[in-house]
């Protein structure tokens, strides 16, 4: 498929809206006013509205917070409590078209050859989750605690966590994929004194960048209608759209000066992973201009160079990046995506910037950077960031920390909580890195199963997530930020997902070092096929019922989500709560 200048219709040659036509918008900022008790208060409305995705397209109906796509950026200070009234003012049917098409059809707009899905009976029922927030269970946005139009939920956020970029989005049970796609998402920034002391780029030099892929509906004449199209393919439920939006615009451009910018990157896509590469005018990758200074949970101890192969962001992951443009005065740079869909963690099939329609990447463009000419003194970038950050090791954990094993399997029970069991029918055997073999059975594997993970409040746990499904899953734990202790590779050739048994046992092959760009605090971890991600977290300060799930939103809605419960220590009958 080739990009052309056509702006009104898509043809068999792959015409599409002209890239880099609209300037990058920056969402407005909401800063709370304090009430008489010293708590900040905000009222945020979910509304139906019309927005412009591209100047050549008809306006698009969306559901969005305050009617803006993306929603306003909420900005708070560390330890300053915030109470938000999330008010459901939605009206009318869900403003998207959903269809299922033949294999390969996700690269194309329009419904040709696709079977429609009837969404007319879906309620405008919403639950809001601030992703990455350490918050009481009653304010976490439990997926079954939705509210209908005219009602509201009032949640309190203590903000007792490090400066970082979180985000808020709809989390209603079985509706999340459609409603986030319809526009219900925005960013949530926490500031603190440690961050202030670094004098990082701010104001117009700090850019929140919400990345999200979309598809577009067409009428019977092949003209764009402006409506969002959620097109999936037969045999798969993940949504991959051909067009990338940044802050709600398709392939925008930004006018920048030859200085340093702070990019607060968020992948808000339903299922698409981005591997971002910066190209110069000639299409050559630019190296050394981007430094990673923070991950999901806040600042690193020191900047990390973005890998030459690109910065990877799975759905829900964030990256705090310094972009140094002093050597690029007067140049036009382009950010492109090189990740195939679905993403398997393998190198790109085509050079950066070259379309790869065979892997659902017909248009790699993301964002154009137009750097103004002029003098560009070399900036002084920080070499030390967070003095309070430290890298965890197993030895840092208390001796009584808990252990959990979760397996990801392509089956009707895709998220399997495992418990130790002797050999026998239905037992999967795992030979670990220490050479010993242990048997496990499924303790729970569907949303309807009772909660089996009960964590003692303020305790540490190690969760091991073993992926036997054949595709990458970004796994998100509510309440906590964790660190990835290690990744392990396994040979699962003997595993039968139908029986849950493994003969020969699933066997450890290698232990992988944690790359520097994944060494910070995280709340979402990419678990690649035939790998085990081993993470450590402290379940501190709050108790109650939470969830963890795959953040491929169609997977979450299809049942790849499970509850866990945090209980205060000392409750009779709860035992140690430390798992296996």
Describe, in plain words, how this protein is organized in 3D:
This protein is mainly beta. It contains 3 helices and 41 strands. The strands form 8 sheets. The protein has an 8-stranded mixed beta barrel. Strands 17-16-13-19-24-21-22 form a 7-stranded mixed beta sheet, with no helix packed on it. The longest helix has 6 residues. The N terminus is likely disordered.
The overall strand count is 41
Briefly note the structural class of the backbone. Answer: mainly beta
Which of globular, elongated, flat, extended, rod-shaped describes the shape? Answer: globular
Radius of gyration: 23 Å
- Helix count? 3
Which range does the strand content fall in?
A: 35-45%
Work out the count of structural domains.
3
For the record, the CATH architecture of the largest domain stands as: Sandwich
Lateral strand order in the biggest sheet? 27-28-30-29-37-34-39-32
Give the % helix. Answer: under 10%
The CATH class assignment of the largest domain is Mainly Beta
At the fourth level of CATH, the homologous superfamily of the largest domain is Cupredoxins -  blue copper proteins
- Ranges where pLDDT stays below 50 over 5 or more residues in a row are 1-14
The separation of the N and C termini measures 52 Å
CATH topology of the largest domain: Immunoglobulin-like
Strand count, sense and barrel status of the largest sheet are: 8 strands, mixed, barrel
Oligomerization state: single chain
pLDDT averaged over residues: 94
